[in-house]
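Quick check before the chapter quiz. The format below is the same one you will see on the exam, so make sure you can read both the input and the output lines.
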Amino acid sequence: MFGRDLQPTAAIRGNLQFTHAGLVTATYFIQPMGYGLRTASDKFDVLAAHHALVNHLPAGSLLLGIQARLDTLEALSKMVEGIDLDLCDDYAAEVIGSYERIRAIEPRTRIHLLSIPVGSAHLGNSAVTRIWRNGSTIDPAAITRADLERYEETATAVLSRVGGEFDPTPVPAALFQWLWEHYLARGAGEDPIAPTRVGALDDATAAVFRSAALDEGAKADNSRRMRPSFAPVVKVVQEQSGSAPSYQTMLTPRSFPYAGMNFPGGSEFLNVLEGVEGATVDWGIRVSTTPSEAVLKNNELSLRRLGEQLDQRDQEVSFAQNTLMSKARMLGEYNQHFETNAGESEVSFTTVIAVGSPTREATLDAVNVLRRRYKRFQIEMTAPVGAQVDLWSLLIPGSPSRRAFEDYAHIMPSDMWAGFVPYTTNQIGDDSGPVIGLNLMSGNFEPIHFGIMEAALHDLSASFAVTGELGSGKSYFLKLIAVLVHDMGGQFLAIDRSQVGEWAHFAAAIDDAVVIDLTDPSVSLDPLRMFDQRVAGEYTMDCVLPLLDISPTSGAGTAAAGLLSPRGLAEHSVASLPDLVRAARDLSATSDSGEDFRELALRLTSLIDRVPVLFDSQLPPLRLDAAATVVRSHRLALPTVEELTTPHLYHRLPLTKRLGTALYELVGVAARTAFLSDNGRFGLLIGDEAHHFTQTHVGASVTSDFSRDGRKHLAAIGLASHDPASDFQGAAHNLIPNRFVFRQRDETLARNSLEWLGIDLTSMPFLLQILREETSPPVGLGRQVPDERRGEMFMRDALNRIGRGKVLGPARSDRAHAISSTPISNNSTRSPRPHSVLP
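Here is the expected output.
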């Protein structure tokens, strides 16, 4: 059979298709709904949207999921959205490297389409006209603007009843030609990029569609021509174009489980089509619905016939009567379903899964892979011999009904059909921003964009949090985001707790970077010198007085509060902590509260020599105007989570740990003051030991301010921790939308991490094992993680979509080396282990 005989199109006007038989269809891009690893309640919302969809589709509607090449140029444009590359040379080099890497991976995507009939047209229907047009009832020249408007109104009315969850967008006319050529060459060669925007070709005729020969059974390949071929394969040959032949098999369900398919988890049978190696897999579902009133009437007729058959076999002793009774019982249950569910309808649908590749063997191998996968759903798939070409044509919009469509149709209530949720996606990440990794869950390796700077421009929070065990990739990921922010023109401040100074080593590769050691200071963190006088006293009260173990309500605390008020600072000429000591000493001799000021002065004096970072007036105050600032705190004693959260332990903290907490808080407050201001530059605060921020009053306030108000001031916070259950509570837990979970082999911590991510482990308990044992697993001698498995993680994006991915390092080799290598001495570094490109 020639392919052009199967192409029904006579004319195309935008997204309206006029077929030779007089049918008019409207075709739309469908935005699939996020699915992946979301909670059961979210998935039931997706089911409800599909239920509304199928109940309002006209008979003969066609749902399509087409696997296609991802447009790498589109990914490139997403990376540079909102970035002035003339001012960001480093990021321009990163974008070029990322583009080459994405192109080498050859990611794919799935295009979701909906084609609905919107009327019939018989323009130019005289006998002579039909002869000249090979039986076509359509004269393209006779289509008027009024005709188009009438069909568009019908389509709009249908889409209005369906609802806006799927955001239908009219396809360009060029898509019909692309779709046809994709079908002819399915899996055999390099697909052209699918046209997704309206272009110059807004109208088309049947002349744009190539012809091809469809050889069912691939008989031309059989040297023994006298013997017929019964292989369920269609060989598609395009002799005129010279393209390589495509070998395709059409699969369709023979039967669904008798006991039904549980939702969620047991009914989404189209999800298994992703990730089939060496083949392209498309799917199409043709649907028609019958309202409940008609169903109930048909059920009464069927029940009456069954009653007549039972009467005829009343005296017969056989299994037939048991079979009839069973059918009557099933019919009763089916009828009750429609009586008790108002607004329900019956769906008749035919599903075709089209598998294509360059060779017959590869196609049949892919078919066998799919059949094995469908055993989990207890769905028997068949590739009917003799009906392959007819089923092939089902995926063509506007194709007339054929016998095979009816032979392999199934009937079920619309609420059960909705459990198939065909219009779903496992996509994660943002719509724009740098590429940070690959999507492992979809099976197509689409790039994951993380628009950390773009989110703030769109009034969204760009803050993120990371959890995982030691060596799982947390620090690597934090440095990746930091260097991307720098290269895109932003600035960051990172607190480096590592003994070897890995962040300081990383900062050496960045221009205009400042490294500060809090125990060997080159700058001062004196809050009275760093901050404006209107707030300096308040920050001193919050951060420094707890260091002195002074209660704000005690006599010394009250004296300090008066002295640190804006009026007190001005009256006593206090502009630094040494000035505060002087003023307290002076007031101890002249004030009525002399004892309180004397106690304050004594406690402050005890710190002067021990804490030069606060009391050395010769040091310049910290200013956060550098592109990168790294604060080393590795020699600070810091309290544990238990000491911070247990009152009696907190009151017994030694001075060294109080000092560490105070300096941590001052760094956070300084970053908040600098970054949460309208300076026109994006600022990122990074904290690895998250509990030192989230478990103290000041730190929790800093975290909350970044999470809540960062979007208003082009700022974000990035936190990392081992245990989100204890460290990411309160503001950090609720207000940070972007969450990443790396390998966590401890069962309790793994469970805490997945629950923090938003995963319901009661419905998906297997994910616990995947995180513990199959996420960047250490293997072999030395228990090392293979390079190609590094960076695997779970992710929840700003839209609450949850999926699984793999972090890629920077595309630039110098950047990759800087964040991969860890210093082990002053003169050498540990060999870097960059993340492999391919998973």
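If your answer matched, good. The first strand starts at residue 9 and ends at 13.
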